[in-house]
Each structure stands twice: as C-alpha cells, then as structure tokens.
Amino acid sequence: MTTLSLLALLAASQTTALVGATIVDGTGAPAMSQGVVVVAGDRIACVGTAAQCPVPANAARVDVTGRWLTPGLVDAHVHYSQTGWIDGRPDGLSAPELYPYGAASRALRANPARWHRSYLCSGITAVYDVGGHPWTTGLGQAAENDPQAPHVRAAGPLVTHATRTALRVDDEHYTFLPMESDAEAGASVARLVAMGAQAVKVWYLAPQPARRAELDQRMLAIGVAARAAGLPLIVHATGLREAKVALRAGATMLVHSVEDQPVDREFLDLLLANGATYAPTLTVGGNWTRALASIALNVVYQPDDPNGCVDRETMAKLMNLAPLQPLLPERLRNPEVHFRNLENAGAERAVMAANLRQVQAAGGRVVAATDAGNPLTLHGPSIYGEVEAMERAGLPAATVLVLATRNGAEAMGRLADFGTLEVGKIADLLVLAEDPQRSTRAFRSLTHVMRAGQLHTQESLRAR
Fold first, then answer.
1. 3-class secondary structure per residue, 239-268
2. Are the CB atoms for 405 and 26 separated by under 8 Å?
3. Distance between CA atoms of 297 and 409, rounded to whole angstroms?
4. Mean of pLDDT values over 267-282
5. Structural domain spans, the chain
6. Over 70: is that where the pLDDT of 458 sits?
7. Parallel, antiparallel, or unpaired for β 200-203 and 233-236?
8. Worst-scoring range by mean pLDDT, 142-156, 205-219, 323-337?
C-alpha cells in the first residue's frame, strides 16, 4: 500500500492507535518495545516506533503500555457442525432421546454466531473448518466482513470410504460423501465444487489389507480431481502409510499428526515437496478419552476455559452425565478400560510430540489446530491447551506464536490478508497482559481482541 493511499485511508476512516505495547508481529522478527500500531478502518496503517508511526490527530488513542500485541490466533482445524460434546458426535455415543442429532444439527446451522463469539472471546480471529455439513461452506462469505466473527474457510462434507451413517440427518445435514468407486469419488468432488467448498477433504482411515491397492489408487484419483477443480486437497490420515499415500496424491494439508509410528525421511521429503501443512491436533484424542471416562465415572470434567468463553448451554450438557451412563456400551462401563485408555493416550501423545519436532526441524509448515467441536475439545478455549502442548513437545513459545498466527493464515490461503501485523493487512490482533515469547500460557492473559479494526475488551465477549 502506498503512502498516498494510506493517507487517504487515514483521512476517510475511523482511526485507532494502540500505543506503548511490545509488538510481536508474527513474522518471527524480533519484538519491538514501546511500539505503535495505527489502524484506519479495518486495515493496519502503520506498525513501528513512535517516531515511525506518529498518532494522527483524529485517532482514538488506546494506551496499552506494559502489554503485548500479537496477530489474532488461527485455529486451523475446527468443525462448526459439531458441538464440543457427544450430541454432535452420535457415532461415538448416541443419545437420541436426550440429544436428537437432527435437532442439534439444525440448531447449529441456525446459530453459527454462538461459535463465532467463543472464537473471538478466546483470541481466535480465523478458523479453518476442515469438514462439516454443506451449510458450513457459506460461512466464509457471511463472516468475512463481520467484526463479530472470525474469518472462516470451509471444506464442506468429507469424502471417505468409511462412512458413519449416524452422522447423516437428511439431504441438507450430512457429514460424508462416498468414494466406493472411481465414478462415485469423482461425483463427490464435483458435488463439493457445486456447493462452494473451499477444499476437498478426504477422511482416509487405514483401509483393510484387501482394499489397500484399490483405495490408494482412488486417493490418487481424488487428488487429480481436486487439482482439476482448483481446490486444495486436505486429508485425515493418522497412520504413516496412509499419510504418505495422501502426500503422493498431492495433499496440501494433513489435518492430524502421524500417530502410529515415527515419521521417516520419505515422509518428510514428501511433505516438503508438496509444501504441505502439518496440523498436529495434539489434544483432541485425550479429550475424547476424558469425555467418555467422565460419563462412565460420573465425574464432571471442568473445561479449561479461563476467560469464560464457553456458553451456558454447552456447560449444562457437560454437567448432565447421569442420563448418559446407561447408554454406554458394556465394555465402557468398566473403569479399568478408561484408565488404560488414558495411558494409551499418553503414549500416543509422545509419538505425536516426537513427530512434531521432526517436522518442525525439517522445515515443514506446522500450524496450531484443535479439531474443535469434538467432545471436550471446545470451540475457542481449546486453543490454549493446544499451543501449550506444542510448547511442552519441545517447540519454543516464540516459534509456536508464529505457527499459531502466520502459518495458520498461510494454510488458509489468506496470508496476504492477515496472520501478521503488517501495513495493509486486516487489523486482526490481540492485546495480552503477559509475554507470549516466554510462555504460550500468555494467551490466557488476553485483555482485548481487535477484529477488522473493531476493538473488543475480552470481558465484553464472555459468555459467563
């Protein structure tokens, strides 16, 4: 943006100047103390020192001395058509009388603002919905210019060979598209294009040995169809073998960790050759395990929600455990099963952490991604546990900040618009009371969120 156009923007728009904070711009550059960010309308007009960015006379001046400014967080794996509890995943535990899936699905479609608010409340200004009901494909356009909502990119229904019928309500509310034949796979991609999906997502669980060759070839064919349609290919493939197949098919994003064994040189070479994004989702598996254990043991699991972003309706469901206990399969009524599952989740997390370190060390693009919408992986505040898990896995806090801002924007194809604090970009930023370069826990100290130039206090966004 030229100096002349910036001056015109300043003259024509509401101008805000945030003054005195330490600026961590998301690019990986050194932080700038006593910085100034000038915002004109919905755009960043200046980032720099007081000398570089004099505050315009017409600006609303906000003193943020002693605080830190960062770009808004990006959660690169969410599901708007899931609730954060079992009513949104009846394939895991079905409670049709208590939580009719059709009613839950229609309620989510009618009120996406419920999740919009919880994301902003937690400091998340952009999300990638990597699989959901067809209506989710309209979220991006509807939310883009709404300062009360994050940016959204949505992939729509998932193409898979492992359909779960429990996640289909009717012809408007369904999660999966088939790939049982080459023709069916091609038709599923065409259907995604027609509904306005912004990616092709394949749920590629490990095929049975007898079908591996067939389904691997179909995965490759879907990659060809996605490229022909001009859509990125994103793949759920948690096994090393399946992840390699996905990358050979041209996957630009793996939406989970490789969790069954250590990644090898071949995997890393494929990932780098594709310029693909690696979204580790370190916490969602443990949260599923905790959700089922809390029901079996009738012990309420208090959500990690330091800023009061989880809505009251969701909180009430998390507390209402007794009616769910009789619905558990017999094997899940034994407490020993849950203790064993928690141990297994810890062992799996160790593999995922090691693989994250390998991908990061090799120069792969890593993002922060929660898989929000799954049981106890709640829309919004789950980002805190995820970035903290990345730091515990061995990534420095300052590195995680870049992964959770800049890299997420790049994965969404929106780095030109947001993800860093740079002149001309959309003014999406956070004000923190603590230093995010020292600890990822600093994101819990959120005091303000700016989305598209509109500054919100964190308190004004709270649900409770």
1. CHHHHHHHHHCCCCEECCCCCCCCCCHHHH
2. yes
3. 40
4. 98
5. 3-70+419-461, 73-286+337-411
6. yes
7. parallel
8. 323-337
Q: What is the pLDDT of residues 346-393, one digit of tens each?
A: 788 899 999 999 999 999 999 999 999 999 999 999 999 999 999 999
Stretch 184-200: mean pLDDT:
98
Task: Fill in the amino acid letter for 183.
Answer: A
Question: What count of other Cβ atoms lies within 10 Å of the Cβ of residue 271?
Answer: 24
Residues 161 and 179: beta-carbon distance below 8 Å: yes
Nearest alpha-carbon partner for 60 in 40, 32, 33: 40
Q: Which helix (H) or strand (E) holds 68?
A: strand 68-71
What does pLDDT average to over the chain?
A: 95
Tokens of 336: 């020993």
Question: Which structure tokens are listed for 6?
Answer: 């910036």
Class of the CATH-defined domain 3-70+419-461: mainly beta
For 73-286+337-411, the fitting CATH number among 1.10.8.100, 1.20.1090.10, 3.40.50.620, 3.20.20.140 is 3.20.20.140
DSSP, res 54: P
**Gyration radius from the chain CA atoms:** 22
Contact 448, 455 (CB under 8 A): yes
Lowest mean pLDDT among 111-115, 146-150, 161-165, 317-321: 161-165
User: Residue length, the chain?
Assistant: 464
pTM attached to this predicted model? 0.95
How far does CA 66 lie from the centroid of its chain?
29
What distance lies between CA 27 and its chain's CA centroid? 20
DSSP state of 91: T
Question: In this predicted structure, what is the pLDDT of residue 10?
Answer: 47
